[in-house]
Design goal:
Two copies of one chain form a homodimer. Chain A has about 450 residues and is an alpha/beta fold. The first copy, chain A, contains twelve helices and 24 strands.
Amino acid sequence: MKNYDVIIIGGGPSGIITGVTGKKQNPDTSFLMIKEEEKGLVPCGIPYVFHDLDDISQNKMGPAPFVKAGGDVLIDKVIDIDIKRKTLKNASGEELSYGKLIFATGSIPTVPSFLKGYDLKNVEQIPKSYDYIAGLKEKILAAKNVVVIGGGFIGAEVAEQIAKYDTKKVTLVEMQKHCLGQAFSPDFAVLADKNLRAIGVNVLTENTVKELVGKDGKVNSVILTSGEIIESDLVISAIGYKPNTDLAKRAGLQLTKSGTIRVDKFMRTNEENVYAVGDCSQTIGFITGRTDHIMLASTATAEARILGYNLCKIGILRAFSGTLSVFSTELNGFAFASAGAIEQSAEAGNVEYVTGSFADVDRHPGALPGAKEIRIKIIVSPKNGEIIGGEIYGGKSIGEMINIIALAIQKFVTVYEMVSFQVGTHPLLTTAPTKYSLIKACEDAISKINCKQR
Amino acid sequence: MKNYDVIIIGGGPSGIITGVTGKKQNPDTSFLMIKEEEKGLVPCGIPYVFHDLDDISQNKMGPAPFVKAGGDVLIDKVIDIDIKRKTLKNASGEELSYGKLIFATGSIPTVPSFLKGYDLKNVEQIPKSYDYIAGLKEKILAAKNVVVIGGGFIGAEVAEQIAKYDTKKVTLVEMQKHCLGQAFSPDFAVLADKNLRAIGVNVLTENTVKELVGKDGKVNSVILTSGEIIESDLVISAIGYKPNTDLAKRAGLQLTKSGTIRVDKFMRTNEENVYAVGDCSQTIGFITGRTDHIMLASTATAEARILGYNLCKIGILRAFSGTLSVFSTELNGFAFASAGAIEQSAEAGNVEYVTGSFADVDRHPGALPGAKEIRIKIIVSPKNGEIIGGEIYGGKSIGEMINIIALAIQKFVTVYEMVSFQVGTHPLLTTAPTKYSLIKACEDAISKINCKQR
């Protein structure tokens, strides 16, 4: 039986980064990655396969950096694991033994099996499979009336991309009051609805799908709980993902209530020498300290770097301090980003907070060509002034601006420090130094804290 | 004699922000701002008046927020100050008394009086004066062959803007090896030359102007030390700015060697109740601890906020911790940014360092429309891994990305912390989470530190 010092199951972002980082730190240790499909995809790039990218091959992602670092890759499917004996068995029949085993098995779309008609032809999901997505693109190109179920990031992005085809009608059905309502407060989320409508998406919020109706086994309309019937030759369900942990469960690993693999802050499971990282592993909120359900490639890769550096020996004494859930997207050319707590999550987590807001333009003077509106709201702990969250709406630059807030949260920066934060500003790139939006939002929060205290 | 609790001399960014912040903190205190010209300009927007903005009025900036907060404004020129009596005299003859006096007198262009022909007609500078700049725009519109002296930020930006007119020839003469060579290391600065050339600027580096030659009192050619003669009906000198401190000197305030007003970390001068802020005041490098010559609106406003919060009573116990010099610009659609130490300034300041570099694209996958190359280099203290500087080249988003580095420097964040930094990433807005450029540059620095240590 062939042996590897380290075997990684899964070739997504967390598998690749754990592999690269771990192998670079431990060049004399043998690493194997087992993945089910030859070709992989940039997960967050999937919606853009449907329009902005000419060809799915442009969204390819593979373990090349891991291979370059000296790791081996095997295309196969692990079907059984014996944790006591430290061996595993692949679908091909091959058996392997390992020193350390890493679950990086990711997540899979939730199938809307509670819906009548969910198994009709042309009722699809968005799995992270190259061949599936290639097939779905063909179906989208052929479709005339598409219904997307779920207005989270994936649903909103897919609907936006399909709406870019003048010949197609797209309807987006969202249960909550606004799209992106999990990551943004209502005053920001409403702008998602607005921008989706502006690009031609028929956004139906506070509505759900009651039934999918087909003809000859293929979907041809969607009945909503509102009673409305929407003609549709293609339905894409984007109602969420669940951790891909059946194998882990069968192997006897402890799972959380939500089905993720229980891990500690070094990504260690309850079994010696077995680790889990990325979407399949438990995450704990940085702000709330409670288990949450964040599945983000950026979170997964942060975990993966920590695991990679500390896998064989604790090398960088840095544990995963909890998920910050830093989100961003762009709809109709307007960018949305949030980090840490928002009002709803602060309420739900019983976190005391005040907000600080500011609105401006993202260039200065605002008359410069291409200038876009910018809105910012931060969430601040009134006791000590620490920034614990933020949301920004505006032009492309806010995709990096949210990372200033993300770093501020992770380093426990207060609004008092932030008001004298030295920033770089430039007419063509940012708001004015006299009213740099993040600083102005901090000043607003300070004045609210002062009012509360008096 | 009319009395004000606080009088601010100057209506640029530092005057305005000191006024707004101070007045808001102390609503019962009377504030007066004395400024020489009715209309003001966004200083960093000046180059864009020459092309990108249709009209100079689009780049107007005034003390409206200060007035709104309850401050008074007087258009006049302070010509004399009696610090003992706490009075000042204006050009109009009016005398005023004050409780606290703030110098926010800014900076003025260095006149190239060492050059023969410097006083010819159509030899211009870039002062921060509305009427002057309005007149200069007329001259630029009329000119055919423009020579810009000095390839720092202002010179490079002005040359770039003029080059956007197809009918005009622009030559930029820079003494150093590359344009922007003060703020960027040679491998980044060379990209400034490249982009200026790409947009049509005749960039002549390692060259200086020997003489300006005129006819009938108006410039018509420029002789370089290389011997080359360049036909020119307009010469714009952008060789630097000097602090506007004649008045302060006459009033008896202590100045530094470089002519700035000596201040402590709360912006207090050597005289009780007299303060100085912005370009006219001394700055001390955050990294080197030595007096430097940074004149940036973003630095000025950071100082101004500290002064405003602490003017009447020390309210936010936060002193100015030294200038970080965070720069950014855009040339030919490519953005340049730097913060803190670069290789040259680290060498000059006797600072031990290693670098960490990475190159990528600013979207993921890179095939997405509008994706731009991104290059990053950070400067790291090898002893403890602290990030002490960085440079980035790429698309517009790096204008905010540099502020992540700026915050990291100000909060003494190490590369070890940064490798597990949770970032927001999105295909249309940032590099990929698997290779977020700043994290990759940190990994590169870590590997260099490890090599050095072994």
